[in-house]
Task: inverse folding
């Protein structure tokens, strides 16, 4: 990553139109050795490693390789499908949606799991609210009888 930034700075120095602009890019290039440059993933990993107790993670954690992550995601989808075919209450769904479509839906849900989690939490809160209102109305009705 640093070599790409260094290369880009050299390119920008070569395109400089004024001595001031050339000096600006040269100054930035000179500060490269002391710079911390990396991906957002490496920054997050560093923060987590520096504050493992606060983040609730093992400080010896390792980053998951993208191909391995893809493998685990596919495995999770297949496990979910295998579970679904053993459940009688899932049969109507399995009869309505093609297996390949269901596989894609599950993979998309897994990709957007944080968004899905938030939506499900909102729905759960709404259902809890409705249940409390229903229980309250039921009690009032019981008192009037």
Result:
């Amino acid at each position: 990553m640093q070599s790409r930034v260094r290369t880009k700075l050299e390119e920008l120095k070569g395109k400089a139109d004024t001595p001031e602009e050339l000096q600006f890019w040269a100054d930035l290039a000179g500060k490269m050795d002391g710079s911390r440059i990396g991906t957002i993933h490496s920054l997050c990993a560093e923060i987590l490693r520096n504050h493992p107790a606060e983040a609730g993670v093992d400080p010896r954690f390792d980053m998951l390789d993208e191909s391995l992550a893809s493998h685990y995601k596919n495995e999770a989808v297949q496990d979910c499908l295998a579970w679904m075919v053993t459940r009688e209450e899932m049969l109507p769904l399995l009869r309505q949606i093609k297996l390949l479509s269901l596989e894609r839906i599950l993979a998309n849900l897994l990709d957007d799991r944080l968004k899905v989690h938030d939506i499900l939490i909102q729905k759960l809160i709404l259902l809890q609210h409705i249940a409390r209102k229903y229980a309250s109305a039921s009690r009032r009705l019981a008192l009037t009888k």
About this structure: The mean pLDDT is 88.
